[in-house]
Every structure is written in C-alpha cells, then in structure tokens.
C-alpha cells in the first residue's frame, strides 16, 4: 500500500483556511462589503430590502454548512481510498494511476 494514497485529503484549500481563521466574522465582513458597494453605487435604498437580507441570512447558514460537511466528508474519503487499496479493489497495476490522482487532488487542496 502506498503512503501517498493514505495521505489523500481535500481539506486545506484557501477558502477552508480562511473560514477556519475567521469563522462567522467572514459573514460580517461580506455584509460590510455589500453595504460599501451599495453606498458606492448609490443603491442605499435597496440594501435593507427583505430579499437582500434573506439572501445574506441564507448564506450565513449555507457557508458554515459547507465547512462542516467538508470536515465530515474529508476523513471518510481518506478512509475510502485507503480501503480500496487494502482490499485490492484497485488492481496492483492501477495503484500507480490512483496515486497520481491522489497527488493531483492534494495539490489542488
């Protein structure tokens, strides 16, 4: 079994790191950007419409759920890759190709 496949992880990208550092402050920062853009564009009368506030509230719920799901799914994907190698679902000849894909995914993360 290759060490490279055992290190498979999708966690650690730039958005993940930003979300871990800022937490819910990320939502406040985004709301301040919306207010600043509305002031610059002269659309201050539309900023407190229910649709804008509702959209922001949905994002405040959805974005943390993405981070939570990522942290839940990541270890399971690592275990999956390790298991398919250990149980020889991946033929020994194709293990090198799997390792190349694992390294590519780790680079992107």
Report on this structure.
The chain is mainly alpha-helical and 109 residues long. It has one domain. 74% of the residues lie in helices and 0% in strands. The chain contains 5 helices and no strands. It has helices at residues 3-6, 14-22, 25-41, 50-86, 95-108. The longest helix is centred in the middle third of the chain and has 37 residues, at 50-86. The radius of gyration is 21 Å and the shape is elongated.
Q: What portion of the residues fall into strands of 2 or more residues?
A: under 5%
Residue stretches low in confidence (pLDDT < 50, at least 5 long) are none
As a whole number of angstroms, the C-alpha radius of gyration is 21 Å
Whole-number total of structural domains: 1
> What's the oligomerization state?
single chain
Total strands: 0
Largest sheet: none
Q: Overall pLDDT, averaged?
A: 79
User: What is the straight-line distance between the termini?
Assistant: 22 Å
The ordered string of helix (H) and strand (E) elements is: HHHHH
């Amino acid at each position: 079994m290759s060490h490279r496949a055992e290190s498979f992880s999708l966690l650690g990208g730039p958005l993940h790191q930003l979300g871990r550092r800022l937490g819910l402050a990320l939502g406040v920062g985004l709301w301040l950007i919306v207010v600043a853009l509305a002031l610059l564009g002269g659309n201050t009368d539309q900023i407190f419409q229910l649709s804008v506030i509702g959209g922001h509230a949905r994002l405040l719920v959805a974005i943390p759920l993405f981070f939570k799901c990522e942290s839940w799914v990541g270890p399971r994907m690592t275990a999956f890759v390790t298991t398919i190698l250990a149980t020889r679902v991946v033929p020994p000849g194709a293990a090198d190709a799997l390792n190349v894909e694992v390294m590519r995914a780790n680079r992107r993360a």
